[in-house]
Design goal:
There is one protein chain. By secondary structure, the chain is an all-alpha fold. It has one domain: ABC transporter involved in vitamin B12 uptake, BtuC (Orthogonal Bundle), CATH 1.10.3470. Helices cover about 70% and strands about 0% of the residues. Strands 1-2 form a two-stranded antiparallel ribbon. The longest helix is centred in the last third of the chain and has 27 residues. The N and C termini lie far apart (about 60 Å).
Length: about 350
Amino acid sequence: MTPSRKNEPPAVVPGVRRRSNEAGAGRAAIKNLFRIYLEKPELAGIVLFVLLTAVFELRSGAAFLSSDNMRGILGLLPEVGLVSIGVTILMICGEFDLSVGSTFALTPMATSLMIIAGVPAVVAVLLGLVIAGVIGFVNGFITLTFSIPSFITTLGMLFIVRSLTIVMSGGFPPLLPDDLDTSVFTRFVGPGGLFRASFVWFLVIALASAAMMAISNLGNWIRATGGNLEATRAMGVPTIRVKIFCFVLCAMMAGFGGVMQVFRLHSPLPSIGDGLELQAVAAAVIGGTALTGGIGTVLGGVVGALLIRVIDNGLVMSQVDANWFKFAVGALTIFAVVSNTWLRRTARRMKVAT
């Protein structure tokens, strides 16, 4: 009699086992990619930056990465980059500030008028930053005291501060004294004079901000406050003070960026910074910052600002009509929001752990 095979395990076909192993390895690789993305949301912006740089370098006949062109891109980056860092940190905390463009104009206007009146330049700059900080504090105080969406509060402040800037100018941009030494921000430094001194200021502030967000209790509080306000408050974190700090920091960074630009131009135009608030939000979103708060990095904000500068310059170097700039930034912002949302939802469906 033939022995029974009822209890024997089913035979495994080698080819089926190999395909099963390959499928499992593929799923594991995809999960690893999603895990890396969730831990480093700014990586998508970095990849896009590399691709756009390569495209513009080819279309410009290798002129895009020339030292002269890089000097122009990096020379203007600090002014937009500082605003983007402040807006990024505030968005991680779960709030918005649409008045940064107006603060960008008011702070150097007040600083310039004080310098013209005889106040020492250093003192005038510090007082100008205090004014910017007051604007940020008022934004935060009104938003949190009356439970008003920060979008509405800062939208109103946008018009108020811009109007004050125009009134203070008297309708004509005042000229800074010819003997005013602005080299601390404007002189070229580094190998071959590749960087303006303002880039060094920007780099120091960016590194300090990144360290604050990455390794300090305050950075953890900011991220937790934006991620889950009620739970963070229940843990004893002073969420109101954390949010007000972020409002003040955002406004002061915008003001400092404005001072850098005015010292470069040597005249405080009341129209500077117009529309800058939307570019800063776009830079934060492109860099991986979540509109709902709790997710984002300072590096992402810097990458987003650099991408905007690259697009602006690259279109010109590629001999494309510069009027397409806003179209490109808008399309990139929508793409970033849609793709980030899809990636996070997919990661949750796949139960990818961070």
